[in-house]
Q: What sequence folds into this?
């Protein structure tokens, strides 16, 4: 392979990206050395097994990926804003919509949600950490390795260009001969293993580590949603693992599972992909429902209406999510019977989802609604997501889908589901739980300003796409001619996209502003909220709870405040905590290099790093690490300091 | 409260767009029975969905107006409500009814558009094989023994059955004003039924992303009056060159082509992947030989079609 094939060349934008990557990757170590922060970084962050810090790292990485995916989106909108535009060529555009999809779903939405899960779940169930803290660090570093591997494809070797669904035979070696889709299969494989481990970890955590008295039906709704989500992860991700492994074999080892010759089946890939891909949609949407349930109930100052039916409907959604996958390809030519069955199962999902919408509305009814930033996102979610929901029902009708399929109508629909659903939820959750983690609040004024920018611009960006779709504009077209008449609405959509970008810039500015100027007078429960995470200090001490609370009902913290009865009793005892470990980050690095060399089929170094991965596993098997104890004295010191700080202000 | 107004504004914008302007949206401007069936199915579903949106938006507005903290007494304490069995049954049952209604509509319209329209029940469909390759469409007429590239002519007021397959990535054959779309794949043949009520020219395209040249993979579908169609076929047969296997291989390799017309078709030497040629029954390189035989059967079938036509 020649150097000019190794590096992507010929595009000014890519050279600029290369320069910025080099600058950033030099600037970080230089800054760390100058500020003498290497040790701090290693001890406090890279080797941490603390669920809160891992959660923060997930969210930071997700914000970074939101930036990358957002730039992709802006480029796409800019390219299609006017007919016959020459900003990007076809190949470049194809790479950009592929990476936009993959990054936004797998490296932005999922890690953001897993990040919030990490921060909140142990606190919400009154636990001191997750069930397997070190495995949790492994999950994060595998996700991070996968994300970085996927991103360097932009400058080294070329990005995948067969769409985020990578349909065969288009994604086969025959039609996609660059290494782009090797990046796809390997980066997703590595990150996917991390996600699967997260699924197992949180399943065990929620089943086994709840505070005394917290029965399943007394769990906060976010915990319920995460429990169900992780069940879906455990069932759905192995399908992705297998599909990606077959893809790697097809592309790099000459097998013919999905190829056109020798009886390979292109439809098999589509089926495997969506058997994972549809549950994946619910993996990112159910926790969002949980976040909204917490926020709506907290700021309506009322318990969640219809708790039981909320749980039942999530269970129903999770089951249905596995029997609807063929609605992604009604047009593949299976008969009326198959399409009808999948139409009905798909429409059936609207029933439990509708139940949830009405329960939220009735939680608000008779409430006392205060319009905080997180609440405003939750309130905007209801009307906007309902549009996404009803258009979903329309798409579920097989005959009608013959006209919507592959059009901008579909694109508008899933953005109307995923943005008010998942993205608004993670931003709302970010504002809501930020003071819990850092001990100070994000600025409300800036928060609301960015809220208005994001919500209005979102509708301006995506509503026109419904109309374009009904007018026959297909997705993934890098250009169109003026005679189609698609120009004006695409331009409108571009204007909205710029507004969205401004909204997100304001959000990031808010983080910066609040770190510098926000008052540090947090008392641990700034929103006067309901669940257990608000019963401990902010910022949360590493052991979470000095004394484990005892729970006798849902919203126990709320009732404890009202009735003046504390949730904890007894005296401090030494707390057993896990030790930090450098092994997960080393393993993540080894996976990154293994993946990189695998992408280029450079077998020797790939084998070497494969051995390193196995070595880290073997080392762990023989390692004796029984954790450590935090002494009573240290607990007292920490607790007094945290309490003292509050009194001082 | 701005949200509500935005939502309402957007909603009325759609209503206006759908209610008819001079240039109706392509999907709502059908020119054949299949597309008309889908168009009315979509309009029906939009009406139902508008009803649902209306209920949700009214509830939402009332709740947000009535129960905002700024409008309530400082000492107002929201009640503790576990839920209400009957309300919850109602908002489960009504969606169930809606889904049942939509299911009936879906099953019936899906089976309607998946076959020859009842309007033309007395006519045998004209079979045209449409195959895609990067990034073109080949149309083979077994009945007439001709072939075109990137345009297709057929008689109006007659059922047409397109049989679809691909010499490469999955593509989706779509003439929005005549029918919904269907995938064309390399290892099997799918079929799609449509007819045009009037002579006219319609935009057809591949709607499924298939690589670099995808955006330009369009073709013109033209329905002609019976005489015009017969005259066109006659012209093609007398003036166009024969399609040889070499020429066809060249066509497959070319990335973009204009229109081409031939007085013979590729089905004779490269039959479609159906029946014995389907991708899922054979496993070796000998398939090439097997395909040589199957050609005859296709031709026999074509003969039958022709006799019906007359």
A:
């Amino acid at each position: 392979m020649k150097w000019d094939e190794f590096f992507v060349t010929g595009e000014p934008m890519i050279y600029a990206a290369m320069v910025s990557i080099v600058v950033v990757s030099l600037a970080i170590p230089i800054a760390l050395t100058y500020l003498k922060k290497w040790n701090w970084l290693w001890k406090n962050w890279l080797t941490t097994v603390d669920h809160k810090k891992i959660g923060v790292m997930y969210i930071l990485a997700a914000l970074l990926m939101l930036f990358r995916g957002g730039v992709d989106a802006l480029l796409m909108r800019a390219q299609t804003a006017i007919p016959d535009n020459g900003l990007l060529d076809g190949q470049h555009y194809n790479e950009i919509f592929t990476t936009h999809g993959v990054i936004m779903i797998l490296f932005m939405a999922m890690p953001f949600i897993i990040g919030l899960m990490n921060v909140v779940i142990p606190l919400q169930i009154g636990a001191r950490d997750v069930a397997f803290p070190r495995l949790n660090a492994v999950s994060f570093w595998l996700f991070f390795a996968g994300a970085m591997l996927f991103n360097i494809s932009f400058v080294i070797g070329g990005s995948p260009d067969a769409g985020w669904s990578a349909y065969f035979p288009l994604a086969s070696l025959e039609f996609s001969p660059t290494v782009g889709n090797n990046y796809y299969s390997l980066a997703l494989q590595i990150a996917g293993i991390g996600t699967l481990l997260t699924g197992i970890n949180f399943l065990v955590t929620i089943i086994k580590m709840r505070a005394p008295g917290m029965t399943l039906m007394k769990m906060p709704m976010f915990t319920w949603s995460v429990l169900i989500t992780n069940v879906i992860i455990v069932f759905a991700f192995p399908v992705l693992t297998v599909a990606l492994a077959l893809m790697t074999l097809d592309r790099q080892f000459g097998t013919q599972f999905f190829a056109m010759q020798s009886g390979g089946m292109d439809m098999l890939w589509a089926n495997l992909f969506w058997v994972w891909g549809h549950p994946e949609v619910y993996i990112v949407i159910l926790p969002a429902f949980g976040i909204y349930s917490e926020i709506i109930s907290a700021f309506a100052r009322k318990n969640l209406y219809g708790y039981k039916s909320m749980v039942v409907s999530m269970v129903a959604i999770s089951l249905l999510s596995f029997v609807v996958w063929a609605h992604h390809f009604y047009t593949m030519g299976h008969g009326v019977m198959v399409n009808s069955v999948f139409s009905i199962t798909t429409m059936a999902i609207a029933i439990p989802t509708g139940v949830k919408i009405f329960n939220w509305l009735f939680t608000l009814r008779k409430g006392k609604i205060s319009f905080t930033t997180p609440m405003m996102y939750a309130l905007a979610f209801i009307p906007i997501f309902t549009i996404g929901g009803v258009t979903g029902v329309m798409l579920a009708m097989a005959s009608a889908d013959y006209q919507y399929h592959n059009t901008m109508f579909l694109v508008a629909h899933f953005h109307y589901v995923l943005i008010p659903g998942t993205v608004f939820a993670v931003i709302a959750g970010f504002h809501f739980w930020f003071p819990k983690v850092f001990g100070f609040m994000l600025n409300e004024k800036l928060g609301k300003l960015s809220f208005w920018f994001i919500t209005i611009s979102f509708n301006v960006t995506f509503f026109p796409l419904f109309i374009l779709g009904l007018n026959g504009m297909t997705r993934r077209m890098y250009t169109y001619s003026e005679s189609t008449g698609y120009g004006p609405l695409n331009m409108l959509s571009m204007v909205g996209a710029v507004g969205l970008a401004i909204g997100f810039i304001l959000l990031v500015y808010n983080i910066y502003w609040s770190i510098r100027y926000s008052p540090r007078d947090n008392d641990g429960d700034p929103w006067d909220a309901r669940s257990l995470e608000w019963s401990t200090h902010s910022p949360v001490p590493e052991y979470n709870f000095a004394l484990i609370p005892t729970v006798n009902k849902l919203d126990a913290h709320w009732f404890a405040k009202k009735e003046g009865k504390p949730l904890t009793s007894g005296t401090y005892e030494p707390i057993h905590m896990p030790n930090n470990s450098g092994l997960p980050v080393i393993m993540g690095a080894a996976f990154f290099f293994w993946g990189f060399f695998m992408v280029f089929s450079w077998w020797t170094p790939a084998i070497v790093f494969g051995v390193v991965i196995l070595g880290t596993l073997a080392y762990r098997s023989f390692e004796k690490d029984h954790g450590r104890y935090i002494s009573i004295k240290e607990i007292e010191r920490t607790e007094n300091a945290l309490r003292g700080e509050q009194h001082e202000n | 409260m701005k949200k509500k107004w935005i939502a309402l504004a957007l909603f009325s914008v759609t209503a206006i767009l759908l209610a008819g302007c001079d240039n109706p949206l392509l999907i709502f401007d059908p020119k054949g029975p299949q597309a008309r069936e889908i168009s009315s199915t979509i309009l029906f579903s939009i009406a139902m969905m508008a009803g649902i949106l209306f209920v949700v938006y009214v509830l939402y507005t009332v709740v947000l107006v009535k129960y905002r903290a700024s409008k309530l007494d400082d000492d107002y304490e929201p009640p503790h409500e576990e839920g209400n069995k009957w309300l919850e049954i109602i908002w489960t049952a009504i969606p169930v009814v809606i889904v049942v209604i939509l299911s009936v509509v879906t099953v019936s319209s899906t089976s309607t558009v998946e076959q020859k329209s009842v309007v033309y029940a007395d006519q045998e469909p004209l079979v045209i094989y449409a195959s895609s390759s990067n990034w073109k469409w080949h149309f083979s007429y077994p009945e007439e023994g001709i072939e075109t590239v990137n345009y297709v002519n057929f008689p109006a007021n007659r059922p047409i059955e397109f049989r679809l397959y691909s010499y490469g990535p999955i593509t989706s054959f779509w003439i929005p004003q005549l029918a919904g779309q269907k995938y064309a794949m390399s290892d099997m043949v799918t079929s799609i039924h449509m007819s045009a009520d009037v002579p006219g020219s319609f935009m057809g395209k591949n709607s499924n992303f298939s690589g670099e040249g995808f955006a330009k993979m369009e073709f013109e579908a033209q329905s002609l009056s019976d005489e015009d169609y017969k005259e066109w076929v006659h012209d093609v047969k007398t003036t166009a060159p024969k399609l040889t296997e070499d020429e066809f291989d060249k066509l497959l390799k070319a990335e973009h082509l204009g229109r081409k017309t031939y007085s013979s078709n590729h089905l004779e030497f490269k039959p479609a992947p159906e029946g014995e040629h389907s991708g899922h029954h054979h496993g070796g390189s000998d398939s090439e030989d097997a395909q040589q035989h199957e050609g005859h059967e296709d031709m026999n079938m074509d003969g039958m079609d022709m006799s019906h036509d007359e």
